[in-house]
């Protein structure tokens, strides 16, 4: 029996590599400037960029596929889920079924693409008098074959509903864990979408963001032996696991069968944990489509060309809402939440 906590250590790429049931994680950290009247950067700040395909991080930020406002104008998805966790900044969401919302600063969104949806994710620069930093994770979680073609669905996990555990070690150092999905120390996250692989507790899907104070020690409890568990160390200096020092910007594949004790170094450490039992089905991926076979991918492309997954009901590709509008979610059934 392997009693070591570490199975593998690997440098982070872009996007971050993941294991079944996850597909990958995209991490965005941008120091956006003050916003102009259109909630984008001024024209002089767009010079020298490959507008429409700007991922270079010039001057500390990227426009991504946006031309006026940074972000991702409408694009399709099928066959998987996105879980978008915003640590800092603002996201405006719109989709082909009439759903919309604005979420930010600790909120998360869970979107089941199912049989097909178009959506946009724009990052409006609401602050006209100061900078607009953005930090978020977008996690792609696969759907099993039985759920690939379910009706699209999205819900908001507002920060007020996301439970937080604060654990103090024997030296008084604090580790803070935000539970986006799963259960930790008998504290459970809000329910995921109903057709998600995460909806069955036996699959032990967990998404945690972790902040450890400098010098803090924390022990992760063990999970089932067939769970895939990955720890992403993305900000800080170094941590120690099993007497092995690990520097920042590494993915650590953990042995789920044993408890893992993490000792932080001289700076605050920020980590993301993804875990879950694997779906163990074939994966065929073509960009934003994730199915079980190449034939299903071909059928998906043909269907998208024919139906556009409901079309685009919004007036702009880069749809954003009024600068003064607060956090909200409007759902396809007409219901709305205001925060």
The arrangement of helices and strands along the chain is EEEEEEEEEEEEEEEEEEEEEEEEEHEE
Number of helices: 1
Major sheet: order of its strands?
Answer: 1-21-18-23-16-13-12
How does CATH name the architecture? Sandwich
Strand elements, count: 27
* Helix-and-strand structural type: mainly beta
Taking pLDDT < 50 over at least 5 consecutive residues as the criterion, the unreliable ranges are: none
Summarize, please.
Helices cover 4% and strands 43% of the residues. The protein is built from 1 helix and 27 strands. It has one helix at 294-307; strands at residues 6-11, 16-17, 22-32, 71-77, 80-88, 90-95, 100-104, 108-112, 117-122, 132-142, 153-157, 164-168, 174-181, 183-184, 187-188, 206-212, 217-220, 228-235, 238-241, 244-247, 250-254, 260-264, 269-276, 284-286, 289-291, 328-330, 336-338.
How does this structure look, described?
The chain is mainly beta and 339 residues long. It has a single domain (6-303), classed as Sandwich (Jelly Rolls). It is built from 1 helix and 27 strands. It has one helix at 294-307; strands at residues 6-11, 16-17, 22-32, 71-77, 80-88, 90-95, 100-104, 108-112, 117-122, 132-142, 153-157, 164-168, 174-181, 183-184, 187-188, 206-212, 217-220, 228-235, 238-241, 244-247, 250-254, 260-264, 269-276, 284-286, 289-291, 328-330, 336-338. The strands form 6 sheets. It has a 7-stranded antiparallel beta sheet, with no helix packed on it. It has a 6-stranded antiparallel beta sheet with strand order 2-3-10-5-8-11, with no helix packed on it. A hairpin with a 5-residue loop joins strand 26 and strand 27 (336-338). The chain is globular and about 55 Å long.
């Amino acid at each position: 029996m392997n009693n070591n906590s570490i199975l593998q250590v690997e440098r982070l790429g872009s996007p971050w590599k993941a294991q079944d049931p996850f597909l990958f994680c995209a991490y965005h950290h941008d120091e956006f400037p003050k916003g102009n009247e259109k909630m984008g950067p001024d024209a002089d700040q767009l010079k020298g960029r490959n507008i429409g395909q700007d991922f270079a991080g010039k001057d500390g930020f990227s426009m991504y596929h946006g031309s006026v406002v940074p972000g991702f104008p409408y694009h399709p998805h099928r066959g998987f889920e996105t879980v978008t966790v915003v640590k800092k900044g603002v996201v405006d969401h719109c989709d082909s079924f009439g759903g919309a919302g604005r979420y930010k600063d600790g909120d998360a969104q869970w979107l089941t693409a199912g049989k097909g949806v178009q959506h946009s994710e724009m990052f409006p620069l609401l602050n006209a008098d100061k900078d607009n930093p953005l930090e978020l994770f977008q996690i792609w979680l696969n759907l099993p074959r039985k759920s690939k073609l379910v009706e699209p669905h999205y819900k908001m996990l507002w920060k007020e509903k996301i439970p937080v555990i604060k654990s103090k070690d024997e030296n008084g150092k604090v580790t803070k864990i935000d539970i986006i999905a799963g259960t930790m120390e008998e504290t459970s996250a809000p329910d995921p979408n109903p057709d998600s692989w995460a909806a069955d507790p036996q699959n032990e899907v967990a998404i945690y963001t972790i902040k450890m104070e400098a010098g803090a020690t924390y022990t992760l409890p063990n999970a089932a032996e067939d769970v895939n568990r990955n720890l992403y160390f993305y900000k800080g200096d170094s941590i120690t696991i099993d007497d092995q020092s690990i520097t920042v910007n590494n993915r650590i594949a953990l042995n789920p069968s044993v408890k893992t004790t993490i000792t932080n170094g001289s700076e605050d450490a920020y980590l993301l944990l993804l875990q879950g039992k694997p779906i163990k089905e074939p994966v065929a991926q073509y960009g934003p489509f994730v199915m079980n076979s190449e034939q299903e991918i071909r059928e998906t492309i043909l269907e998208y060309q024919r139906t556009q997954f409901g079309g685009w009901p919004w007036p702009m590709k880069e749809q954003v809402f009024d600068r003064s509008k607060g956090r909200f979610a409007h759902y396809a059934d007409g219901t709305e939440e205001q925060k």
